[in-house]
Amino acid sequence: MTDSPNEVTPDRLSQADALPPSDQHAQQYAAVRNAHETELLEDYVELIADLLEHQGEARSTDIAARMGVSQATVSKTVTRLKSLGLVSSKPYRSLFLTEKGEAMAAMSNQRHAIVLQFLRALGVSDRIARIDAEGMEHHVSQETLDIMQRFTREQESRSS
């Protein structure tokens, strides 16, 4: 089997691509660590906001079902969200976002929408685009999001 001339393979990467300068490399890993720290929190507040908008309430049982985790996992994460001032609740009532939680949910939702629309503009099927966007949204910089959004708009204007 012959590689196509445009296929990216490890042997086609330049030395700089394969191993960037140490300070740049450290920044890359720091960005990933930071994204991993906030990823779960953003997913939860985004889902809570969606549940509140579409169902009128955000119950722990709904969160567990939609995230595919146990009630205990949701309870533990909600406790963390409360301690960070992102959600509030009353006994036997659904969850509510604080102003800080609403701001995080809005930002996360916007990032998600940009990545999802970009993937669709590339021709990725809706099902796969939704799966991929869920992870990617946490790991792209604002610069990359801006370029994704510009690309999507250009594709949409070409097809109009």
From TrEMBL:
Domain HTH dtxR-type stretches: 38-98
Listed PROSITE patterns: HTH_DTXR
The protein's name in its UniProt record: Transcriptional regulator MntR
Function: In the presence of manganese, represses expression of mntH and mntS. Up-regulates expression of mntP.
Coarse class of the protein's main subcellular location: cytoplasm
Keyword presence, Mitochondrion: no
Record's subunit section: Homodimer.
One Pfam family hit: Fe_dep_repr_C
UniProt entry keywords in alphabetical sequence: Activator, Cytoplasm, DNA-binding, Manganese, Repressor, Transcription, Transcription regulation
Subcellular location, record wording: Cytoplasm
Entry's family note: Belongs to the DtxR/MntR family.
Signal peptide: none
Domain of life, source organism: Bacteria
Gene3D superfamilies, sorted: Iron dependent repressor, metal binding and dimerisation domain, Winged helix-like DNA-binding domain superfamily/Winged helix DNA-binding domain
Region (Disordered): 1-24
